[in-house]
From TrEMBL:
Transmembrane segments: 30-57, 69-87, 107-129, 247-267
Protein name: Energy-coupling factor transporter transmembrane protein EcfT
Membrane-protein topology: Multi-pass membrane protein
Function, in words: Transmembrane (T) component of an energy-coupling factor (ECF) ABC-transporter complex. Unlike classic ABC transporters this ECF transporter provides the energy necessary to transport a number of different substrates.
Species the sequence originates in: Anaerotignum lactatifermentans
Localization terms from the record: Cell membrane
Family affiliation: Belongs to the energy-coupling factor EcfT family.
Length: 274
């Protein structure tokens, strides 16, 4: 289960998506997430899913690898579906028992939220899978650069976000190793009630926190040994430049947003459904 988490990982490949400018991918991903909250029709979700499928195919990232990341959040998806299924009120009752009621509106809302979560996770993972940590850092820093005028440390924020994403797979791998080591010593993480299962996680969390602090100290010492001083007088070996493919991706994204907004207007309600 732990190895199934794909957020923060980078999948090396030669594809048009990998070659896009990191700034474009960050902005496009943000607009894609926004579009998921604008879409409210079946046709809209079909268009979003089809577009995401085309982008995944162009990225040359295996679909199985993308879907594998959903295994780690299947509980959240099911919980969201159940909440929306029973808590959404409507006029067309499909099933009722005591205080539990399932309506057509609730069923539609549950399906819509599940699809939205799946598209959100897959689309967000695609950005990190096709962008190296260095490119991601430079892209975030460039987009936050205007905030420097009001005293926002753009470089430090970008570095912290990238380091956090970079070490997610490392910490997950460390957790997996610790769990296997504890199970080899007779630890049981599957039996017992919720309190017992929570207590059984202590032998995992303690060495994991120790390992995380040790890695943080080693990283700080390595950065200091390389005379890292933040954004002060910092130069880059690879300067980010917008190319023709980046402008084409921006135009395609603008057209996509116009289609999504047009479908929402045609549906008669231009509100963000959260």
């Amino acid at each position: 289960m732990i190895r199934d988490i794909t957020i923060g990982q980078y999948y090396p490949a030669e594809s048009p998506i990998h070659r896009l400018d990191a700034r474009v991918k960050i902005v496009v991903t943000f607009l894609y997430i926004v579009s998921l909250f604008i879409v409210n029709t079946i046709m809209g979700y079909v268009i979003v899913t089809a577009l995401l499928g085309v982008v995944i195919h162009a990225s040359k990232v295996p679909v199985k690898f993308m879907l594998r990341g959903l295994k780690s959040i299947i509980i959240i998806i099911l919980f969201t579906a159940v909440i929306n299924l029973f808590m959404t009120r409507g006029d067309h009752i499909l099933w009722s028992w005591k205080f539990l009621t399932i309506t057509t509106e609730g069923l539609y809302m549950a399906i819509k939220m599940c699809v939205r979560l799946v598209l959100l996770i897959v689309g967000s993972s695609l950005m990190t899978l096709t962008t190296t940590p260095i490119q991601l850092t430079d892209g975030i820093e460039y987009l936050l650069r205007p905030l420097k005028k009001i005293g926002v440390p753009a470089h430090e924020i970008a570095m912290m976000m990238t380091i956090a994403l970079r070490f997610i797979p490392t910490l997950l791998d460390e957790t997996d190793k610790i769990m296997k080591a504890q199970q080899a010593r007779g630890a049981d993480f599957d039996t017992g009630n919720m309190i017992q299962k929570a207590k059984s996680l202590i032998p995992i969390l303690v060495p994991l926190f120790i390992s995380a602090f040790r890695r943080a100290e080693e990283l700080a010492m390595a950065m200091e040994a390389r005379c890292y001083h933040g954004d002060e007088n910092r130069t880059r070996m690879n300067v980010m430049r917008m190319r023709g493919r980046d402008y084409r991706a921006a135009v395609m994204t603008a057209v996509y947003l116009c289609v999504v907004v047009g479908l929402r207007i045609a549906a008669g309600h231009l509100t963000f459904m959260i």
